Amino acid sequence: MTPLLKVQDLHVAFRLHDERGRSRHVEAVGRGTQGISFEVPANTTVALVGESGSGKSVSAMALVQLLPRNAECAGRVLWNGEDLLQASRARMQRLRGHEIACVFQDPMSSLNPVLSVGEQIAEPLRKHLGLSRAAARSRAEELLAEVGIPEPRRRLDAWPHQLSGGQQQRVMIAMALACEPRLLIADEPTTALDVTIQRQILELLARVQAQRGLAMLFISHDLAVVGEVAQQIVVMRQGTVRERGSVAELFDAPKDAYTKALLACRPRLDDKPRRLTVIDDVLVVEAPGDVAPEAGAAGAATVRNVDVDLNPRRADDDDPVVLQVDGLSKSFWLRRGLFARSEFKAVQDVRFTLRRGHTLGVVGESGSGKTTMGLTLLRLHDAASGPLSGRVLFHGHDLLALAPADRLAMRRRIQIVFQNPYEALNPRFTIGQALVEPMTIHGIGVDAPARERKARDWLVRVGLDAEAMHKYPHEFSGGQRQRIAIARSLTLSPDVLVLDEAVATLDVSVQAQVLNLLKDLQDELGLAYIFISHDLAVVRFMADDVMVMKDGRVVEHRRTDALLAHPQDDYTRRLISAVTRGPANAPLRAAAPA
Amino acid sequence: MADLPDFASTSLISTLPEPVPARRAAGVWRSAWRRFRRDGVGMVSLAVVVAYALLIACTGSGLVARGWQDEVGQPDAPPSFAGGAARAATVAASAAAAASARAEVDISDVDPLAPRYQEWDARAAQYQAQARPVAATLPFGADRLGRDVLSKALKGTQISVSVGVLAAIVATLIGASLGAVAGFFGGHVGDLVEWVYNVLTAVPEILLFFAFAAVFGRGISTLVLILGLTGWTGQYRQVRAEFIKHSRREYVRAAEAIGASAGARMFRHILPNVSHVILVRMSLMVVGFIKAEVILSYLGLGVATDQVSWGTMLAESQSELILGHWWQLAAATIAMAVFVTAFSLMADAWRDALDPRLQK
């Protein structure tokens, strides 16, 4: 059987100009003479897996020639025997959407905000299939029903912003399916979504693929997700294919060291290691390459195995209480008309106790109030935004009753690390300036040189080079920036660190390094963490206690092990079941083709 | 990563040499300059603007065009490159012809005063010799009063450009600080500033010009004030929008979390990130204000009567044009068009070079 799509020795390079105007080529896919090759048979899901910068998305976009102008492709992409790299522009336009359709990562920015959902689905139907307006509309309604949107007739006239993220992604899938494509390219389709929604979208994709006999090229950085939907996996790293094989082969007997590392570095629900394995532990520095490797957590290189426990942390209940929160509630005023306003209760009656050196995990979907809760602890909300009540006792002082003048001292003791490492650092500050600023504000260190020395110490402690002091944030990768953000918070020697989805945007492998770093710092400095996350597997690795939040309320709050073993609440159970676990329980995967 | 020092050896780090401060600060601006240098059009326009700046320095210090008010040519003398030399020759020839004609014909029979003509002519010649000789033609012609158009254009450049630049600075100071306050604080403060803005923009601009001009009287400083006080609105809107956008960004939140005060967040954190917007807007305002000065001077609200600007030159050239004396109009137009075009192109190039989104 000839495969539907056959990629042979594909190379993609970008022409770039540096600041002095010299042009150079940067290889995105393929290294040297070695290009990438893989096949997508009909009625099969093939997954491209790799970290960011591995060239997986570039490869997929090269297939449909949706790359920017400065990209140069070489090799062959055979679609039913026709080389797409040689195809004319008109031919590609007919092919895209009609025979090959794409679903992208961020549904909100992929949908046009000024066209109704119905119009957007009808567009390819009328363009490629030549349907009349009425016929396209009724077809669009069927498609919306197929992707599981309730009340499809009414939704045809909805605007994208009126739909939730999951529904938007369903609409994107409906658009992709509109012209009955034979290949669906899904580029990280669930990365921007909540776990429970991710589960639904994965189920939908698997169902559609099986029902329609589609071929699907599924791109993800997460092997656990891929293990549930794909039949074949292509593992990529730094522009080359590391390993190819069926899901069973890859998960049960990975041959390549990198694949093994990827499988090992993800925190799991059923196992709580002391440290996570990081890629560098497994791959003994192969080739430094032109992609700067994430600096491993200091000392990690010696800790090969997960259970070697050098200084076991005692998370016992005798540790002193640093933070006691009682009946914390936060509301926001919503404007209604000209003068009226209504109260939206974002956080209601949250209570917990946090001890020194302990971690409280806060879990919930977006909109559950977990981030608001974290920001409220730091008083990062505008006072006029809405009422605040309850007590936050920090070493015996009620933070909510503090006068504004006393807040500065409190700020020093509770710090926060934000979700997006690309946003949290001022692009116009060097790393040195960013690290010194908090110390200057709080008068830590005698003079500027002393502060700079301290800043450099912290950089080294979070596993970066002291040379980084003079660089700007854009010169660092996401994981490195998150380390810098952590170092910046720690310059103030806080007691409590609020980690607001601090690893959510990082690749799994980088995530493992940052999580290890956080654990090391906690052991060493006795930090108390409030670890806000939507990912239960990560929370299990980090947290002693878990608080599950839904609609601003705490639905369950217990020891992590107890909660995961015997969840009491339905919502908790739903969250747990939504965690992706690879092929071990893959109800989604359709039967392999004959 | 075996080569990284471990936690215990941090003392090793503190023995590293102190950083060179200059290495830190240069980054953003130096890389912007590098990008700017790659832009050919930008570099040419920058050269033109620098040439103008040198010229203004020369006129300002009196090296050039000091005597722009002197009567150095005949009234409405044409430029030498456009038939001026020919005209000068014919004028001289006809004068000589008239003189010789007078000498040849004896009219003493009919004119009893004729014998004294020679004496009078001699005395008149004596008298004229004390007056400055005026040229029949000048490099770029002369105006109605015989003043050198080229000198006027040079002096006018100094006045017009300095009005434009100073007014843009005033407008930027007002617009950027109001915009920063309104955008950062929002709420009632923002509403108040927005209200001022709305009232000001509701009045037609030309009425505002008249009102301010009536209060302050004529002169360069008045022009700067008028343009600055009426022209800040565009800058205000843009800076306000940028501050609204940036004050919600995570790096500003992070600064608040480490305890940075509102002022520090506004000026240390956000301002450098929006400075390119402010700069580019300011350079566009320079262009707009130069044009506004021209219109105001044309309407008689501009610079004082003993000063010259591109606008007063254009106003004068209106009546000259009917007589076919186009050179004053041409001189002012060329000087203005070249400067405004070069300045706009330079502003565009700076915007491209300074935009942090293009830094990757």
What's the gist of this structure?
The complex is a heterodimer of chains A (594) and B (360). Chain A has 594 residues and is α/β, with parallel strands linked by helices. Chain B has helices at residues 10-14, 21-25, 27-37, 40-61, 80-104, 114-128, 149-185, 187-202, 205-216, 220-231, 233-247, 250-257, 262-298, 310-322, 327-354.
Describe this entry's structure for a reader.
The complex is a heterodimer of chains A (594) and B (360). By secondary structure, chain A is of the alpha/beta class. Chain A is 34% helix and 24% strand. In chain A, α5 (133-146) crosses α7, α15 (431-442) packs across α16 (448-461) and α16 packs across α17 (478-490). Chain A is globular, with a radius of gyration of 25 Å. Chain B has 360 residues and is mostly helical. Chains A and B meet through α14, α15, α16 and α17 of A and α1, α3, α12 and α13 of B.
User: What's the total count of β strands of chain A?
Assistant: 21
Helix percent of chain A reads 25-40%
Side by side, the strands of the main sheet of chain A go: 7-8-9-4-10-11
Low-confidence stretches of chain B: 1-26
Distance from N terminus to C terminus of chain A (CA atoms, Å) equals 11 Å
The helix content of chain B is: over 70%
Beta-strand level of the residues of chain A, as a percent range?
A: 15-25%
Estimate the mean pLDDT confidence of chain A: 83
Q: How many strands, which pairing sense, and closed or not: the largest β-sheet of chain A?
A: 6 strands, mixed
First and last CA, distance of chain B: 27 Å
Oligomer: heterodimer
